[in-house]
User: What shape does this take?
Amino acid sequence: MRLHRLSITAFGPFGATQEVDFDALSSAGLFLLHGPTGAGKTSVLDAVCFALYGAVPGARQSPGASLRSDHAPADLPTEVQLELTVGGRRLEVTRSPAQPRPKKRGDGFTLEKAQSRLRGHDPERGWQALSKSHQEIGEELTRLIGMSRDQFCQVVLLPQGDFARFLRSDAEARGKLLGRLFDTRRFAAVEERLAELRRGGEARVTAADERILALAQRIAQAAGPAGGEATPIAARPGEPGLAEAVLEWAAVARSTARERLDIAHRVLTGAEGRQRTARHALDTERELARLQERYEETVRRAAALEERRPEHDRCQEELERARKADRVAPALELREEAELAHRRADAALDRARAQLPSDLADAGPDQLAELERRFRQELGGLESARRAEARSAGIDGERERLERESRADDATVRDADAWLAGWDAVHAGLRERIATAQEAATRAERLAGLLAPARRRLEAARRRDALADELLAAGETLAEARERALDAHESWLGLRERRLRDIAAELAAGLVDGTPCTVCGSAEHPAPATEGDGHVDRATEETALTAHRRAEETRARAEQALGLVRERHATAHAEARDAAADGSSAAAVADGEAQGAPGPSVDELRDTVDRLAAEHAAEHLLAAGTHAAREALDAAEREHADRLELRQEAERRAAARTSRREALDREQTALHDELAAVRGASGSVAAHADRLTRRVELLAEAAEAVRAERDAARRRKEADDRLSDAAFRAGFDTPEAAAATLLDAAAQRDLQHRIDAWQAEVAAVADRRAERDAREAAEQPAARPSAAQGAFETAEWLLREASSALAAADQRCGELTRLSRQAADEVRRLGPVRQEYERVARLAGLAAGTSADNERKMRLEAYVLAARLEQVAAAATARLQRMSSGRYTLVHSDARTGGRRAGLGLHVVDAWTGSERDTATLSGGETFFASLALALGLADVVTEEAGGVRLDTLFIDEGFGSLDDQTLDEVLDVLDSLRERDRSVGIVSHVADLRRRIPVRLEVVKERQGSSVRHRL
Assistant: This one.
């Protein structure tokens, strides 16, 4: 596999498109990829890996990380294009990761999917498209390269830090790395498959044993007490002998259960006979007790009736008297209503007489009615006096209104006189304000004409100062460019001179025996010139010449940039000095600047602009008041006219009020004389009328109360007569005696119910006294039903217990038989499963290194990796001996360390001491070249593993800074030997000494706009 060309666009630190020509870099066989830290050296290798496999090395493929450059413009897509030859085919692969791009319509971004393209080159038809499928391209490239991404990153992109850790790591870490490189997953899969089969078999055996144990537990539960007589099962699930122990234990439990079933049958028969006898005795005692209790209850009820007889007689007599008193009840109710009405009428009469004068306290209804009539006539004659009094009050209100209007008009006149007294001064002030605003407008226009040029001069001064810094930077850039151009020119001349000194050797290299020399023409070449130390070939001279020309171009561009900045600075300087106003040219200003006339500063011009702006704002604000001043003058003139008119109107209203006030005074005098004769002692006609109205109402109420009291007394007398007559006819001496005997309907019903209940009880007791069986039972001894009940319950309980014991024993026998049959079936099914598990377990233990047959305790995958590691150590030793001057040799060790397993140990043999020690004891420099030798050896072994695919391009990343000069030379010699058969090696490092030792370089330059690459050929 050979890399030809790499194009990187907006990838990692590279903001623009960068081209890497691997053909040019590989021409010398060994080239250096260098640059400052963070410039993007490793990103070049990431781009190669991304082009081939669609992903960067795993350590840098962190979740959420973006491959797109932050320096790239939004419209420039991220893309990596790699041209290479692999498997005898010239291919070009182009990949773009998923990335945001601007929307074609509207604002914002949309996510564009990842894209891949593969083209192949045909000598006759040129480039031909092969595929655009990620999967097809990945599979085709992996097939042609013969390595996975992890193998490629370890074999082609040799990461020295990883192999240094590999030397110092333990067997487990080495196993992980070697497993990824040599793809021993099939052996690990065999281990896992055997372990899985073992776990599956063990799970099946354990599950079967657990089912058998579960059946044993169910048998124990079903056996009950019989299970305790057998020996407990000590075996656990998975242990041999468990099934036989369960079957033996189940047989003992079944035999014991059958014996207990026969005993339960005999016990049940005896319990049934005892229960029948106890039941008959209990029924006999209960019947005797019932008859004795019934007879005793009859005797108690008869005694109770005799005790209640006096109460019965009293109730019957009371009910008869109450029924007689019911005939007097209507008369009693009528007497009570008449008495109540008389008391209310008497109370109303007392209230009415209390409000009358003392001379009318004993007056009759006729006298009161006559007084009421006279007062009503007098009240009717006061209507005319009421109208006169109302008019008098209206005149008083109108006079008050006239007084308020007079005071308001007086205030209006005084206010108008006070305002008109200062009219001349106000009028003159407003006219002066208008004149001042007009003058401010004129000054504001003049200041606006001065402010715009001042602002332009300020902006020009700012540009002048900014361009001064650019001018200084451009001068420094030009000086650096001139220095680099001079150095390049001297380097080219030196190389040209050295080449010319050895031009004879260069011409001699082209001589062929029998062919005339192009210089002397001789066909014989007895002593051709040879190349001396430090010979310079044509390519080196042309490279120096190209560098010289590029430096000259850079210098010319720097001079052009300086002239442009200088011209812009002179223009800005002229504008800042107001050169246009003075009639000077930009060249004159530049001459003045060169003579030490820098012009006004930015601060001075800013002060001038601020001062003019403040003055303009003040004058503009003052001029803006012109319109307001004119409006104020117009408003003042209108108010002057209005106030003159108000004063005249007030004077006219004052004359009219004087005439109206005189007429009201005459009318008021006449009304006062009329009202004085009518009011009398009252304060007003209305008060006199209210007093008469109150007297009329009191007299009417008193007359009505006298008549009502007399009617109520008459009705009460009539009710007393009717009540006395009704009581006598009912058989009572007085009405009061009849009232005391009277009962309501509820009380009478209660008495009747009590009488009826007593008579019903008498009949019931007579019926019970006639029962013969109760009398005979009373003559016998007292019954004992509780003792009989206790005997029966005991017999019943014994019967239930016997029945339950029989049912349980029968069920236990049936359940034990069924479970024993299931256990036997499970044991028969377990036999083949256990045999298969034992066979798989032996194989899994051997592959996992846990079996006693595996003496070294090595896993199958570790055994295969140990063989690969032994090959890698042998291949690495060939180069390590050259790098260490024959001192060190790498050997594989399968010894165990501590409690860990054997197989992946790596030791170094020191030829100087003859001792073998762990690779972790090597120093920093020794660790580097040992890890480099190991990486190269691993690359050889992996290449053979991949089918012998030729690797024409290798990269070695970092680690050279830890070597001394001699060791570095030896390492470079080893790397130089890799160029055999047209192989190229790229060293990624920032060690400065390597730039001197390796002339062909690819430099990664870190810049603000993104990194870039430069070829040093």
The two ends are 23 Å apart (CA to CA). The first helix runs from residue 22 to 26. The first strand starts at residue 2 and ends at 11. Residues 481 and 554 are 6 Å apart (CA to CA).
